[in-house]
Specification:
By secondary structure, this protein is α+β, with helices and mostly antiparallel strands. The protein has one domain. Helix content is 27%, strand content 10%. The strands form 9 sheets. A two-stranded parallel sheet has the order 1-13. Strands 2-4 form a two-stranded antiparallel sheet. A hairpin with a 4-residue loop joins strand 8 and strand 9. The two termini are 25 Å apart.
């Protein structure tokens, strides 16, 4: 945690906006050696004045130095939420334990003990060659039963481990998956399936790698194991950068519907989300009231039964409102720290059964009468307690075994969501430079903006929030023009060992050029297979079936000067 000079940042924003006087001389190319600070907030070249502020005036920090991903938005300070933001930041950064308040409740099975471990520097996870629960490893395992062959990206999650498979456990339990036995092998692409050469026409080469993950059956401490219920396939997914998430939450549903309609006119969209015949959202696009639970909107209106919110978060777009999105979910299921709206454990019946049958587990609990699993102290009593307390089908409801109390208070959860919704986007850089202006022109000309839509308007930002803190406000972003460079829609790239489910939301590009200074790496794509921007782009053209092949082919045929300009542009926004 660091002290942030947001008052100065707000003054800087005001001065920069006030200086936008429309001087025509600034609309000409300027020296590439000239620093950009004097041009912030002014139209220049083919950039408008507002493009310096990707998060709008309420969502952008002027800080572009190392650590800028941690900055709160000006909206946080304007609304008097800085203290809550800082407390929420502590919940993100601190490690959870089994007993030390206020960061207690870890386990009994978990993935990481700290959110920061998965999001180094608040950014995207880093590429790993070993699966270890250490700082920078943002990997989540995806373990599923493949359909249409072992190499299929599609198929249902295995039921024996959780959707986010846990690789750690608190004593005396064993982890559902023993992470020491997980093998990650990085392989080189020797030829593009699409036929695109791996040397650009001017002779410059590029190289692509991808992960292959294997887990032996003996690594699973479940009964049964996934291998006993069918063929098993494994994919990696890295954590998504969390900066600016509150601004994406503020994009109106109707605006996203318009974008779907625009793209559906010439492209095939995920039928689970878009009904082509009705020219409207399909049932799978909505997150219903029954999943959200009771809540209210920012204007105080209750979210009545029947309320539906549009899914927009995670690669697979499984979550709707940010307040029930990836972060709100992860603060519970990554650490397994319960709270009042989720007072039960994130476990599986198969793991509960295996632990209840493990003699070492039973023996260890027998030596500790203070354990909630001790029951009457007999082997049978302990076995029944372990089975029932760890089994999610019994422990989430009041019954004779339910003696777990919420470990994260409602106020702690509220502070965490102020922090999560309050993370800013750093301002754009180098928009005064010729190559960046050229890169924008080429980016649009070859069709990248077809999916990486540049801007959105947030309108009233009448966000949803759960009832557990519905009487408190969160950072709000009304009437802001934002520049995330995403269409908020899923597409397919058909990469080898691709993403589970095949469809993946277009990743926002804003702020990614500062990844190395904030996280120490610039790995990209869902599993960090791309080590730089060029590799990320070329993966879009691995297969001719890719929804972005036509755009990648155009990029491939650019001159080196134009390719470099596109990279500079992407790293500047």
């Amino acid at each position: 945690m660091k002290i942030k000079g947001l008052t100065t940042a707000l003054l800087g924003l005001a001065v920069a906006v006030a200086s936008c006087d429309g001087n025509s001389s600034l609309n000409k190319s300027v020296s590439n050696r000239e620093p950009d600070a004097k041009y912030v907030g002014q139209a220049i070249g083919n950039f408008s004045a507002s493009e310096w502020y990707p998060g709008g005036l309420l969502g952008t920090t002027l800080n572009v130095t190392a650590g800028c991903y941690e900055d709160e938005t000006p909206a946080v300070s304007e609304q008097g939420l800085t203290a809550a933001f800082n407390l929420g930041e502590a919940a993100f950064e601190r490690k959870y334990t089994t007993a030390t308040a206020p960061f207690k409740g870890l386990g009994p099975a978990y993935l990481r003990s700290s959110c920061l471990d998965c999001h180094p520097g608040y950014g995207h996870g880093k590429r790993q060659s070993e699966y270890k629960s250490e700082f920078g490893n943002g990997y989540l395992l995806v373990i599923y039963h493949p359909v249409d062959g072992q190499n299929s990206d599609d198929g249902p999650y295995v039921a024996e481990v959780t959707g986010m498979p846990q690789t750690r456990a608190t004593y005396p339990f064993l982890p559902p998956v023993d992470e020491s036995k997980i093998n990650i092998m990085w392989k080189n692409v020797t030829a593009m399936e699409s036929g695109l050469p791996m040397t650009f026409p001017d002779g410059e080469e590029y190289n692509l790698i991808y992960p292959e993950v294997t887990i032996p059956e003996e690594a699973f401490n479940t009964s049964p194991t996934p291998y006993q219920t069918g063929a098993v396939a494994i994919r990696l997914e890295s954590t998504i950068g969390i900066i600016g998430s509150g601004l994406l939450d503020a994009i109106p549903q109707d605006s996203i519907r318009d974008q779907y309609r625009k793209e559906a006119a010439h492209a095939t969209l995920n039928p689970a989300f878009w009904d082509k015949d009705a020219n409207d959202f399909a049932a799978g696009a909505w997150y219903g009231y029954d999943r959200l639970g009771p809540g209210r909107f920012a204007d105080g209106t209750p979210a009545e039964a029947g309320t539906k919110l549009l899914k927009r978060f995670t690669y697979a777009m499984t979550r709707a409102s940010l307040q029930d999105g990836a972060g709100a979910n992860a603060i519970w299921n990554i650490t397994n720290v319960s709270r009042s709206d989720r007072p039960y454990l994130y476990t599986t019946k198969a793991w509960a059964k295996a632990m209840s049958q493990n003699p070492d587990v039973i023996a260890a609990i027998k030596q500790d009468p203070s354990s909630p699993y001790y029951a009457d102290g007999t082997d049978q009593g302990i076995q029944e307690a372990v089975l029932n307390l760890l089994d999610p089908s019994t422990n989430q409801f009041d019954n004779q075994w339910h003696n777990f109390q919420p470990e994260m208070s409602d106020n702690q959860y509220y502070n965490f969501m102020v922090w999560h919704r309050g993370l800013s986007i750093p301002r754009a850089r180098n928009l005064n430079r010729e190559e960046v202006q050229k890169g924008k022109e080429v980016f649009n000309r070859i069709g990248c903006a077809s999916c990486h839509r540049a801007s959105w308007t947030t309108t009233d930002d009448n966000y949803w929030k759960p009832e557990v803190y519905a009487d408190k406000e969160l950072p709000q972003y009304k009437e802001q023009t934002i520049w995330p460079y995403t269409d908020m829609i899923q597409h397919r790239l058909y990469m080898i060992n691709g993403i589970h489910g095949s469809w993946c939301r277009t990743t926002p590009l804003w702020g990614r050029g500062l990844s190395r200074s904030n996280t120490g790496a610039e790995d990209r794509l869902h599993d960090n297979r791309a080590r730089n921007v060029i590799e990320a782009i070329m993966w879009h053209g691995y297969s001719r079936e890719s929804d972005a092949y036509w755009c990648t082919e155009k990029f491939y045929n650019l001159s080196k000067e134009e390719r470099d300009a596109v990279v500079e542009f992407i790293n500047s926004i």
